Amino acid sequence: MNIVVGLSGGVDSAVTAWLLKAQGHDVLGIFMKNWEDDDDAEHCSSREDLVDAVSVADHIGIDIEVVNFASEYKERVFSYFLAEYQAGRTPNPDVLCNTEIKFAAFLDHAMRLGADKIATGHYAGVRETADGRHELLKGADPGKDQSYFLHRLDQAQLARAMFPLAQIPKREVREIARREGIPNHAKRDSTGICFIGERPFREFLERYLPKTPGEIVTPEGRVVGTHQGLAYYTLGQRGGLAIGGDREGSGEPWYVAAKDMAENRLIVVQGREHPALRRADIMLTNTHWISGHAPPVGHGYGGKTRYRQPDAECSFRLAADGRESLIFTEPQWAPTPGQYAVLYRGEVCLGGGVIA
Q1: Of 93, 132, 235, 278, which one has the fewest beta carbons inside 10 Å?
Q2: Which architecture, in CATH terms, is 2-201?
Q3: Catalytic one among 44, 194, 314, 349?
Q4: Cβ–Cβ < 8 Å for 236, 277
Q5: Is the pLDDT of residue 215 over 80?
């Protein structure tokens, strides 16, 4: 087949391209440039990543193109990212980046080039069922499974997608890259925001959202400090609160438990196991179900309220007014508005929604 691979400059996409070439496919690499603001060596590694991607393509023996999706990224992902933070929520741009850029703008570009499929280095799988539907599966390596980030893909997107690393553990990916002499075999994994890179996040956010200081209070209303703006904090956050010398407290660390947007107050509690940090009933908004319709109401599901969290037993509830919720058997720690709760049946990712 003609397969277009998203070459990021990382080892996962490099091995993805190598595997497909070794299988006899016609492979073209595409390097996506999606961020241009202050794209310098200090914060954003896109120049280094491009050099690595070109080196990989040359080593494997495939062509590579550079495509700029910066305007699409700003319009479809970054504007939403800022609006959510301004509203006091904590968005996950990596999920939207997959839906709107890698499996939309990039997919459309690849199809115009005559591709049969696109491939990425995600640790996830796709399976076609007997009735022609496509299921999103967990990656076989439980420590690297990335189905959480792909849960908003639809049937048309999954039908065109390939994930060659679905059954390969990360350590084996590294070994393949080393064995085949792929130039970036030892490159460390990126941990920054999708396409924006690794940088001091608070400092980055302050460039776009103004400071709006207010009080930090306990649930009882006792003032214990001052915050710099509710947008800069997230539920469950421990560091960066600058609360010190509280003689009336328990001595345990402080955690963000809620935001009072109307009064511009940050509500904090002491102790990681404070009841205010746990919830069992998680209401969802803006849900997306991969099959095209909501899953059956009932029990026996696994759910995640954050990436890398083990599946937690839950049920799916559809209220008479149409509201959808996940009800967990055990209350979940700091489910954060704006983040995603994702639902599974075994190894199959069913979809999910934004935590309300």
Answers
A1: 132
A2: 3-Layer(aba) Sandwich (3.40)
A3: 194
A4: yes
A5: yes
